[in-house]
Amino acid sequence: MKALAITHAPSLSAAGFAATAISYGPGRMGFGLFVPEFRAVFSLDATSVGLISSLGFAGFFAALLLAQVQLNRRGPLLPVLTGLGSATLGLGLVTVAPNVPVLAAGVFFAASSAGFAWTPFNDAVHRKIRDVDRPTALSEISTGTSVGIAAAGCAALAMVLTGLSWRDCWAFFLLASAGAFLMNWAALRRVERAQATGRDSGWRELRQAAMWPLMAIAFVFGCVSAVYISFAADHLTKAGGVPGLPTAATPALVFICFGTAGLAGLLTGRLRAAIGMSRLLRLTMMAGAASVALLGLLPGGWPALAGSAGLQGVHVMVTSAILAFWSERLFPDMPTRAFTAALLACAAGNILGPTLGGIVHDTLGPRAMFLCTALLPAALSLGLSDRHIREDPAASATRDGPVPTAP
Fold first, then answer.
1. Is there a contact between 315 and 228 (Cβ–Cβ < 8 Å)?
2. Contact present, 194 and 398 (Cβ < 8 Å)
3. Is the pLDDT of residue 339 over 70?
4. What pTM, to 2 d.p., does this model score?
C-alpha cells in the first residue's frame, strides 16, 4: 500500500488538477466569460442572462448531493467521471447551440461538473497519498481552479486577437474536457471506495447554533460571486473596456485577472495563522464587497477591471479555503458532510443571486445591481462578531471523510 501511495501521487495530482481546471474554468465560468457573444447571437437581455446562469448553478447544487452519494457507494471514480462527462456534454452543446434552450442545457451540464469534482479528490488523496505528500498534492489539485479560469480567459483573448469564433473556443474546451476524462479514468480506476466506519448520523448533527454563521457567510459568498461571474465581464465591455486594447478583449482580461489573483488562495493557511480567522474572514468579505462596488462606482478602465477582478479572485479563493477549514474545525468528526452543507448554502446563493441581479439590472440599472450586491458581504462582515466566528468543535459524530481543500 505504501508503494502504491508514493507512486500514485503524481498521476493523481495531475488528474485532479485537470478535473478542477475544466470544471471550475470553462465549465463553471465559461458562460459569464462569453456573455457578450451570447447576447449578440441569441438576443439575451439581463434577465435571461441571470436565469441561464442560475440554471447552471442549480446544476452545481444538484451535483454536490449526487457526488456525495456516488462517492459513498462507488468511490471517487464514478463522481469524477460523471462530472467530466457532464462537462464534455455541456461544452459540446454550447459549441453547437442553435438556440437559447440548447445553450441553457449546455450551461447546465457544464456547470454541474464543478459539483462532482470537489469532494472525491480529497477522499482519494487522503487514502492514497502518504501524509508528507498530501499538502503538496492538494495544493496542486486546488490550483487547477485558478489556472483553469485564467486559461479560459487566455482562450477568449486569443479569439479576439486572431479572429476565431467563440464556437472555436468552446470546441477547444470540449477537447480538453475529453482529455481530462481519459486522464482521470486512468488515475482513479484503482482507487476503491472507502470503508464505512461507525453509524451514519445524517445531517441532523449539523443543526447547531455554531453552524449558522458559516452557512450565512457561504450563502452571501455564493450570491456575490455568482453575480460577478454572470455580469461583470459584460458590464465592463459595455463601459468601453480598457485603453489600448480592443473592447472585445475585456471579458478575457477580467477572467485572466480573476484567475491569476485567485492564486492568493494558496496563502490562506499562512494568513490565518498570522492574523487569525476572524480578521481574515472580514477582510476577504470586504474584498468581495469592494470588488462589485467598483463596478458600480467606476465607469470602466484599468482600475475598475484589474481592481474588481483581482479583488474578486482573492475573495473567491480565500473564502472557499476558509469555508473548508472552518467546517472541519467546527465538526472534526464529520468534516466532509459539514463542508458539503456549506457548499450547498453557497450553491443556493449562486442560484438566487443572478436571477435577482438580472431583474434589478433590467429594472434599476447595473449600478444599482452592483451596489446592492456589495451591501451583502459588507453588512455581514460588520454584523458578525468574534463570538459568531468560533472554531471550537461543535459536534461529535462519526467521521465521514477528510476535509476537502477548496478550489
1. no
2. no
3. yes
4. 0.85
